[in-house]
Amino acid sequence: MTPLLQVASVSKRFPGVLALENVSLTLARGEVLAVVGENGAGKSTLMKILAGVQTPDSGEILLDGQTVTIDSVRAAQQLGIALIHQELNLADNLTVAANIFLGREPRRGWFIQQRETETGSTAVLKQVGLDPAVAGPRTLVSTLSLGRQQLVEIAKALSAQARVLIMDEPTSSLSQPESDALFRVIKDLRARGVSIIYISHRLGEVKELADRVVVLRDGKNAGVLSREEITQDNLVRLMVGRNFSVSRSARQRAASVPRASALEVRAFRTAANPQHELNFSVPPGEIVGVAGLVGAGRTEMLLALFGVEPAVGGEILLNGVAQKITRPRDAIAAGLALVPEDRKQQGVILEMAVRENLSLPSLRRDARAGFRNTASERAIADEMVEKLDVKTPSQRQFVQFLSGGNQQKIVLGKWLALKPRVLLLDEPTRGIDVGAKQEIYKLIEQLAADGVAILFVSSEMEEILRLSDRALVMHEGRITGELPGEELSEEAVMQLATGRQNG
Amino acid sequence: MKKLLGIFGLLVFVCVVTALKEPNFLNPYNVENTVRWTALFSLIAIGVSFVIITGGIDLSIGSTIGLVGSLLASLLTVKGWSISAALTTVMLVSLGIGLAHGLLITKLRLQPFVVTLCGLLIYRGLARFLTDDQSQGFGNAFEGLRSLATGKITLPFGGYALPFPLFIMVAVGILAAIFLNRTIYGRYLLALGRNETAARYSGINTDAMKIIAYVICSGLAGVAGILFSLNLNSVQPSGLGEFYELYAIAGAVLGGCSLRGGEGSILGVIIGSAVMRVLYNSINILRIPTHWEFAIIGAVILSGVIVDELVKRVARGKTANTKLQTAEKPQTPNSGPS
């Protein structure tokens, strides 16, 4: 029997990176196929290709044995392929029925056939097991919990005659009972012949649901596991690969003798994950990496440390002194600096000059009676452009015209001007080309050598292994383990990142 | 600077055309009057430009002027307060209005449009209530105080004179320009208007800065309210200042403030306000039927903004080309949300 869906040797190149290289998979009717891989393994790109968001550079996609061209989201829908996004795509100001039929409303002339949308919705809502009393066709989507919204999204796909449902991390924001309800629906759909591609970081779910697992690594097929072969060890082994070579930095790693901590947190609780207490410390001159899968609560921890989303409990100590940090200004005054995750939104002001961006946090320190000190502004810009080798035609250039790497240097530079004692970095090299990446690494190492305590979050395994003297691994809001330099390996990180506790 | 040349060119163009068609445009009385009104409107335009720089808006300026003007006249003539007590009171009222706007917008996260629209209605109602909706006037009293608005310094040629409000405007303009361009707070305003998140992440107290902007705006509306009422002598609580917020906003936008925030020059705003007043004066002096007034002013502002946008787009097109060559590589596809 021909499989329902076949992906044959699909490749996709983005400038500077081969996102997918000859990736193949098959999906049978009524099968739940899990696709797993590390951050950046190519899962999302593959799913976007299937859903018509992106087109492959080469390779074939076959549906029912026929080659198909999926060049738009609409084309995918007509072929019966529906992608259910991690972040839901519902208009929450509209009713359930309006969402289910959005864009394909049954109508007479200019008028929507209200009754038909409602009867049509009732039928698919039943299929996903939604109780009409809580989520009927006329219920406003905004009144539904996230789990129920997810089910509405699935109902919408079913109503559009979807034969292949692609679910991207569907449980990432669901509670346990909601996840259980979703699993029941998935099993029920499978029994009725719907095929499902299930993307998840959570290996437990994969074990529970999947008939088969396709593992991707670095944009290539890393292996397939049949139902009985699915174990955590097998999965991690395939995700990580055995011949992974890491270019560890030649830098003398900080000795692991205990020293006074530049940064220490005790029973620290973030607003995002208030049920877990975080405890760790970073001595001066040490680089501590924070590894974990997307959504593990790492960014939230940095934002809490920096006072953007103030912590709900616990203590922050800098050089042994407890600090009250409720806004970024407090954090900066205490000697912290944050290179945030979203460079363009949080890090720089795109429509401001290089010099103005670099001097922004230092303005207050250098001001005389409220007046800007233009001499010190120029000095800061001169120093940082030179020291960080920022490539810009002039200091008057708007930051938006700089490359990603140079923009990131601006973010680093504006903090270095304040001489922070603790530098927090969130995905410091995201979206930066290889050359600039190396420069940023060198800068971070130089800062550590000068005695700055460094805590960085990264989703790139290579980066964690390359930079960290020590790594903290987080999973679902907790620190599941701490790996000193000599124990630091990709496999050890992945075990902890997928929820296996150590010691 | 190039931007200022454009708006300045428009001002000169309107002046020249009007003067050629009607020489009376240049007679000393008309010039003095136009300058006086330009000065008064520049004050509120400077005020609102601070709010616009933060990405906000203030629709209540006209009503604040109405409230301050009626209240001042009423306190001085009906209640018999001393000049200093009355002036202090009305200034505190206007500063308080700005503070209230700022707090509502930053702490309760209400939208500036809504807050100040409600202000527009409330202060107008308050002005009419406090004065029993009776027109207020100074009569022949308070000559000294009124000369703040009506006074002038005669120039030694052609009978021309510089009206006193011009000096007030110049002083306020210089202070505002220094605040905006030379202090750290001005830079903070520009930064937060461009990108509030990044400004906050840089340790700027963005809420406090926004509140300051609204206080400046209402405070200058208060100063203008005092001068308008002194200048007019007879104050209608229901009419004084009506639509003035729109002239102020239009002047600020013509002068180079972007309603998206983060942009503005005080000199530009003053020239923009001058364009508004000269246009208004031209319509009168050229005996164009006054019912055309709004339509003409609207059309001129619209064309000014369109031309400005087109110029910007051409400039952006040029830089976009250079940007392409240095553009960063798209982000590595990531399996998670980014």
Topology (elements, then pairings):
The complex is a heterodimer of chains A (503) and B (338).
Chain A lengths: L4 E10 L2 E11 L4 E5 L6 H8 L7 E6 L2 E3 L4 H7 L1 E4 L11 H5 L6 E2 L2 E2 L1 H14 L18 H14 L4 E5 L7 H16 L3 E5 L3 H7 L2 E6 L2 E7 L5 H9 L22 E7 L8 E5 L4 E6 L5 H8 L7 E6 L2 E3 L4 H6 L2 E4 L3 H5 L6 H6 L3 H4 L7 H14 L16 H13 L5 E5 L7 H16 L3 E5 L3 H7 L2 E6 L2 E7 L5 H8 L6
Parallel strand pairs in A: 3-10, 3-11, 6-9, 9-10, 15-20, 15-21, 18-19, 19-20
Antiparallel strand pairs in A: 1-2, 1-4, 4-5, 7-8, 11-12, 13-14, 13-16, 16-17, 21-22
Helix pairs in contact in A: 4-5, 5-6, 8-18, 14-15
Chain B lengths: L1 H20 L6 H26 L7 H18 L4 H24 L5 H19 L5 E2 L5 H8 L1 E3 L6 E3 H19 L1 H11 L1 H6 L4 H27 L1 E2 L8 H11 L11 H20 L7 H34 L12
Antiparallel strand pairs in B: 1-4, 2-3
Helix pairs in contact in B: 1-12, 2-7, 2-10, 2-11, 2-12, 3-4, 3-5, 3-10, 4-5, 4-10, 6-10, 7-8, 8-10, 11-12
Question: How would you characterize this protein structure?
Answer:
The complex is a heterodimer of chains A (503) and B (338). Chain A is an alpha/beta fold and 503 residues long. Helices cover 33% and strands 24% of the residues of chain A. Chain A has helices at 43-50, 73-79, 96-100, 114-127, 146-159, 176-191, 203-209, 232-240, 298-305, 328-333, 343-347, 354-359, 363-366, 374-387, 404-416, 434-449, 461-467, 490-497; strands at residues 5-14, 17-27, 32-36, 58-63, 66-68, 81-84, 107-108, 111-112, 164-168, 195-199, 212-217, 220-226, 263-269, 278-282, 287-292, 313-318, 321-323, 336-339, 422-426, 453-457, 470-475, 478-484. In chain A, the strands form 5 sheets. In chain A, strands 6-9-10-3-11-12 form a 6-stranded mixed beta sheet, sandwiched between helices. In chain A, helix 4 packs across helix 5 (146-159) and helix 5 packs parallel to helix 6. The longest helix of chain A has 16 residues, at 176-191. Chain A is globular and about 70 Å long. Chain B contains 13 helices and 4 strands. Chain B is 72% helix and 3% strand. In chain B, strand 2 (152-154) and strand 3 (161-163) form a beta hairpin. In chain B, strands 1-4 form a two-stranded antiparallel ribbon. In chain B, strands 2-3 form a two-stranded antiparallel ribbon. At the A-B interface, helix 1, helix 10, helix 11 and helix 15 of A face helix 8, helix 9 and helix 13 of B.
